[in-house]
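Form P-L/3: holo structure prediction, ligand phosphoenolpyruvate.
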Amino acid sequence: MISDRLVEVGYEVRPIFGVERTVIGAVGGQEHQKVDTIDQLRAYDFVDDVMIITKPYKFVAKEYKKSKSVIDVRGLKIGGDEVVMMAGPCTVESEDQLMTSAKAVAEAGATVLRGGAYKPSTSPYSFHGMGLPALELLAEAGRRYNLRVVTEVMDPRKVEEVSEYSDILQIGARNMQNYDLLREVGQSRKAVMLKRGLSAKYEEWLLAAEYIASGGNESIMLCERGIRSFETYTRNVLDVTAVPVIHNLSHLPVVVDPSHGCGRRDLVATMSNASVAAGADALIIEVHPNPDHAIKDGAQSITFDQFREMMPPLRKIAEAIGRSVAAIPSAV
Ligand code: PEP
Ligand code: MN
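OUTPUT (holo model):
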């Protein structure tokens, strides 16, 4: 009834049905009618409150929801009390490379396997991924080790294909403002991990997420992966500040990628600790059986041993802030 009235005056509505209350998100509408409409809505005795969200993004704004979003990835919860570990190679290179990586990261405590099948690259002459065979290997590794799978989709025409093989669609930093791609994953019902653009402001990043949410897909996590600066010692500057800032502005979970954020293997464990301490809901880390021979991103990829060794301190930090590291859910 409220929704009908809102539609009548030109709003697009999106209800969220809770146990005790229903929140109706409304965007659009005529500016000059806003005040009157709000007065009318407030007059209903079953309307608890009418809130104006003045931010340019609405569906991803904190005000839109009472609590943080928890994304359910086949039983694995991202954004809840538990910190989720995602790990695996930058790029899928071979069956052996992926399977050994999946086994090692699962045994050390990861619950999501990462691996690129379609790789964005600054140079057109670099390796661009194995494509479909890599997707098949990722799905197989996921089944074998009961891991969820995250992999990048670069092309709106490939969203369906990538969705068939993976649990989370990664939108890479270089594609954060690829609006056709954002709209396409907005039509999908797969979880999306939206990486921050190389030089994107928080507002631009949240507006990119708004493209996805406004299409009806609210299973979005935002991934901080370092931003451009004048510093050259590190590949990027990992903006750990993004974690509390995004949590202040949005209900979406925040993932941190210290691998791309620093570009250096020796900083991954420390910056992972810092990210968890800052409240990151998940980490995504590049792990390779032989980083010095990795086709891509070897300098920032850690070994199986290093991944195993970084976990105990990380668990302690999670505990210190009242969280724990998520284990693989038994039910699929
Ligand atoms: C990656 O995850 O391997 C990747 C290419 O990341 P980004 O888009 O953050 O550069
Ligand atoms: Mn990479």
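COMMENT: The pocket of phosphoenolpyruvate (ligand 1) is lined by residues 90, 116, 120, 172-174, 195, 225, 260 (CB under 6 Å).
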